[in-house]
Amino acid sequence: MSDSVHAYILIQTEVGKAASVAREIAAIPGVTLSEDVTGPYDVIVRAEAASVDELGRFVVAQVQAVSGITRTLTCPVVHL
After folding, report:
1. Residue (of 64, 37, 36, 62) closest to 49 by Cα position
2. For the chain, which residues make up each domain, given as ranges?
3. Within 10 A of 63 (CB to CB), how many other CB atoms are there?
């Protein structure tokens, strides 16, 4: 996508669910990276969409629908 919007989505999961959440999210179209990590978040996802609105719909309709997720924080990439 040439003028697409990119974002990192930081995800908290239920205990023991990080690996399965990361695997399931990796299969969603628009996700370019999905890794389970340590720290305050359990999974970090990099995603792209055609617009900010599409990104918002993507997070709500597809990412947050994955079983085991308790909270997400979406961080759009900016070019300063």
Report:
1. 62
2. 5-76
3. 23
Q: Which of 62, 76, 58 is nearest to 24 (CA)?
A: 62
β-partners of residue 33 are 46
* CA–CA distance, 49 with 60 (Å, rounded to integer): 13
pTM of the model: 0.91
Each residue's pLDDT tens digit, 20-64: 999 999 999 999 999 999 999 999 999 999 999 999 999 999 999
Check if the beta carbon of residue 44 is closer than 8 Å to that of residue 37. Answer: yes
For the 5-76 domain, the top CATH level (class) is alpha beta
For residue 76, the cross-strand partners are 7
Alpha-carbon Rg for the chain in angstroms: 12
For Cα atoms 73, 47, 14, give the angle at the middle one, nearest 5 degrees. Answer: 45
